[in-house]
Amino acid sequence: MKKEEIKKYLIRIQKEQPKIIDKFNISIEGSVCDTSSKFKDVVSFYILNENGIIKDISAKCGPCDPYAYITVNILVKILKGFCLKEIRLDNKEISDKFVKELKTEMDEDMRFHFETILKILQEKFTS
Q1: Are 10 and 34 in contact (CB under 8 A)?
Q2: Residue boundaries of the structural domains of the chain
């Protein structure tokens, strides 16, 4: 993603002001960039699961780089209504919806964050 595209998306996220849902029965936390640096992308998801379907979902990310922040925001938008067992990296529908919401192709950094964060969710639902 170009810097200008990242900036526009972050401004859009700020205007939408995503909130953490009050009622959830699944919480997931994971680290995206588990490096020795002092900053790590730590993501937390809050999911209302009803009969194996995501009825509501929210998340927070921090401290996060822009790619992680954008990825978490988009996943929250597109995963609502999915069956938990469908949350897999090989699910083309998720990837297609992600790119459509992103409104540009994923560059290497965005793909890394998308795949890593989706794997955090996938591990929870396939284990």
Answers
A1: no
A2: 3-126
Q: Which CATH number does 3-126 carry?
A: 3.90.1010.10
For 79-126, the pLDDT digits (tens) are 999 999 999 999 999 999 999 999 888 999 999 999 999 999 999 987
CA distances from 8 to 14, 53, 66, 119, 125 (A): 10, 32, 11, 26, 33
How far apart (Å, rounded) are the C-alpha atoms in residues 83 and 50? Answer: 9
Pairing between β-strand 53-61 and β-strand 26-31 as defined by DSSP bridges: unpaired
Report d(CA 76, CA 73) in Å as an integer: 5
Which of 60, 59, 57, 35 is CA-nearest to residue 47? 57
Give me the phi and psi of 40, to 5 degrees please.
-130, 145
Measured in whole angstroms, the distance separating CA 15 from the mean position of its chain's CA atoms is 18
Question: pTM of the prediction?
Answer: 0.89
Could you identify the residue written with the tokens 């998306």? 9
